[in-house]
Amino acid sequence: MPVFSFLVYIVVSTFTPGPNNFMAMLFAHRYGFRRTIRFCLGVGAGFFVVALLCSYCNLLLKNLIPGIRWWMTILGAAYMLYLAVKIMFHRKKAASSREDKNNRFLTAALLQFINPKGILYAITAVSTFILPYHSSHLALIGFSLFLALLSVISTFCWSMFGSIFQRWLSAYQTPFNVAMGLLLAYSAVSILVE
Predict the structure, then answer these.
(1) pTM for the structure as a whole
(2) Which of 86, 88, 129, 145 has most Cβ atoms within 10 angstroms of its Cβ?
């Protein structure tokens, strides 16, 4: 296994902007770091299942990818655009104990099943770097856990950024929301253009 290439690929893919990272940063900005932890853990749990499914269904997916990829790309990009619009037009309300229903463990876990960046990342990592060299159950579970752990670390990093700069972001909430929404929309469009 080309370890260096594998590590470069997964670090770049995991830590670059995407729906998980943008949402983690936004939730930390709105609700604070502690209230975003469950979202980050949900991302990891959902991604673990996606990576495990990619590992065990790689041959099946390889034959079905042309048909599945198009639908998943359209569905995922549409959802990302929907989130981008919601983020851009979000207005700060009076202090309330009500929290965004999207900042939940289950929502984050389920997001992984329509996150085209995450799914394509998992398929590529598994088919290119893992399955040609490792096929035992223990190895597949171990690599899936490793990829999931990296996704949790990535969303924690983006959450900390949102939390650390919370005061500054609050002062510039509208431009920040527009910028985050546009970046999320860019992610959706870039997935469609690929």
Answers:
(1) 0.71
(2) 129
